[in-house]
Structure formats: C-alpha cells, structure tokens
Amino acid sequence: FVPIGSQCVGSAASRDMPDVQHVAFLTPSNHLVLVVNNGDAVPCRIAVQDGDELWPVELPPRSLSTLVWGR
C-alpha cells in the first residue's frame, strides 16, 4: 500500500481521539494512503477529508485500517 518512493504527508484530527493514531502518505502514482489505528475496545467513527471530499469511516475495535484513494 505504501510503495518505495512514497512521501509522508501531513494529516490532522479535528478532535481529540487519544486511542486513534494516523499517518498519511502520497505515493508516486499520486494516491493517498491513510493508515489508521483504533486502539480502543469499541468501534470508532471518523470522517476522512481530502479537499472537498468527505468520507465517513467506521474503525473496528482494536484495528489497523488502510485507506487508499486517487487524487
């Protein structure tokens, strides 16, 4: 999901979620990869925003999720 040559890019949370960590990458093929960890024992709903696009995502409990989309 994160090929050689990808660059780490900024990502931010709009609210405090101590059990959710995230990191984002831009791949050489101009895809964004967001890796999100939900360390909590309950599901967590987040919203992923890229420009004007907004996607609701439910993270399962104690999960590591990878989201990939083109720009």
Structure characterization notes:
There is one protein chain. 0% of the residues lie in helices and 56% in strands. It is mainly beta. A hairpin with a 4-residue loop joins β2 (20-26) and β3.
- Largest sheet, if any? 4 strands, antiparallel
Sketch the topology as an H/E string, one letter per element.
EEEEEE
Overall morphology: globular
Cα radius of gyration in angstroms: 12 Å
Major β-sheet strand ordering: 1-2-3-6
The computed structural class is: mainly beta
Query: Count the helices. How many?
Result: 0
User: What's the average pLDDT?
Assistant: 96
Low-confidence regions:
none
Number of strands: 6
Strand content: over 45%
Subunit arrangement of the protein = single chain
Distance linking N and C termini: 15 Å
Specify the helix fraction band: under 10%
How are the elements arranged and paired?
Blueprint lengths: L6 E3 L10 E7 L4 E8 L5 E7 L2 E7 L3 E8 L1
Antiparallel strand pairs: 1-2, 2-3, 3-6, 4-5
Keywords:
single chain, 71 residues, 4-stranded antiparallel sheet, 6 strands
Give a brief outline of the structure:
0% of the residues lie in helices and 56% in strands. The protein is mainly β.
